[in-house]
Write a structure and sequence with these properties.
Elements lengths: L1 H8 L5 H11 L6 H6 L19 H7 L1 H9 L3 H8 L4 H9 L3 H22 L7 H14 L10 H4 L14 E8 L4 E8 L2 H13 L1
Length: 207
């Protein structure tokens, strides 16, 4: 379990979605079957969305006919079928955490957004179509996909090392700066033979 929690809190997704999975593991989501089991008086424990079967976690997220189309639109049907056969919430979450990073992100976002849809329907609002939901999930997942750091040009990455010039050449290293607001500048010259540096500095000052 300790390894499971470490994996859960390291997922690259919004913290509210990590907390949602944590609640799912502990059966603390306000699903109708769970509420009824805890003594809450509920006249109808059927799913708010399909009105066919009892609303537990396995049904709402993996088996409900209203959500299956969204899983299929996101190319996650094989994942859904596997998760639908798992008997407990903790085991299901553990299997989700084993998925590849891109699948893991889409699954978590889909489940979280589907729970939000369920809560909206409970408040009397109309649910989104599975096409709209799949598009939102894909967009959200793309937003949270880590972007590779831009590569620096090879000329910047490789630092030039100083090398001694041939015997019949003079090698001079120089640098300059100019301040526009003061109309002044500066020049620095480094040479093996100091007399050449002094000569160039005098020449620059004269011009």
């Amino acid at each position: 379990m300790e390894q499971m929690w470490k994996c859960l809190w390291k997922i690259n997704c919004p913290k509210k979605m990590q907390h949602f999975l944590w609640r799912l593991c502990h059966n603390s989501l306000a699903l109708r079957v769970i509420l009824k089991r805890r003594g809450v008086k509920i006249d109808d424990s059927r799913c708010l969305l399909c009105k066919r079967f009892d609303e537990d976690g396995a049904h709402l997220f993996f088996k409900c006919k209203c959500v299956r189309s969204a899983w299929m639109s996101l190319h996650l049907e094989g994942v859904r079928e596997k998760l639908a056969e798992i008997p407990s919430a903790k085991e299901a979450v553990w299997e989700i955490l084993k998925l590849k990073e891109d699948e893991l992100r889409r699954v978590i976002i889909l489940m979280y957004m589907w729970w939000s849809e369920r809560c909206r329907v409970r408040e009397g609002e109309s649910p989104k179509s599975h096409e709209q939901l799949a598009l939102l999930v894909a967009s959200y997942a793309e937003e949270w996909t880590p972007k590779p750091a831009p590569r620096e040009p090879a000329s910047i990455r490789r630092k030039q090392k100083w090398s001694r010039p041939p015997s019949d050449f003079i090698k001079i290293n120089c640098d300059g700066a100019f301040a526009q607001e003061y109309l002044t500048g500066g020049l620095g010259i480094c040479d093996e033979r100091k007399r050449w540096a002094d000569y160039l500095l005098r020449l620059w000052k004269t011009e």
